Amino acid sequence: MIFTPDVVAQIARHMNDDHAEDNVLIVRGLGGVGAASAARMSGLDADGMEFEATVDGIAVPVRIPFPERLTERRQVRGEAVRMYREACTALGVEPRH
């Protein structure tokens, strides 16, 4: 298992603390939850990233699969960036980074 609970917690903390707005764009653009007002990363495994989106005050689970299975922790950053950029494209938003 490449994503131990500690590793998942570290990645989630980074995504939620430093990329909260990106999380919202990802669940809106790629997760099919266009009405999300907030989103936090809630999990991760080799096949996808999980979020908890907020829609009208209700928590909605969202899973976004990776195009291929990850085999190393360092791949997560690239996948997060890819998801963010694809979500921006889908939503017609200019990427900030």
What is the gist of this entry?
The chain contains 3 helices and 3 strands.
What's the CATH superfamily, by name? Answer: PNP-oxidase-like
> Approximately how much beta-strand content do the residues carry?
15-25%
Number of domains: 1
CATH third-tier fold name = Split barrel-like
Order of helices and strands: HHEEEH
Strand order of the largest sheet: 1-2-3
**Average of pLDDT:** 95
Q: What is the helix fraction of residues, given as a range?
A: 40-55%
Radius of gyration: 13 Å
- What top-tier CATH class fits best? Alpha Beta
Query: What summary fits the major beta sheet?
Result: 3 strands, antiparallel
Low-pLDDT residue intervals, each spanning 5 or more residues: none
What distance separates the N and C termini? Answer: 31 Å
Q: How many beta-strand runs? A: 3
CATH architecture: Alpha-Beta Barrel
| Mass-distribution shape | globular
Please work out how many helical segments DSSP would assign: 3
Quaternary state of the chains: single chain
Helix/strand/pairing class, anyone? alpha+beta
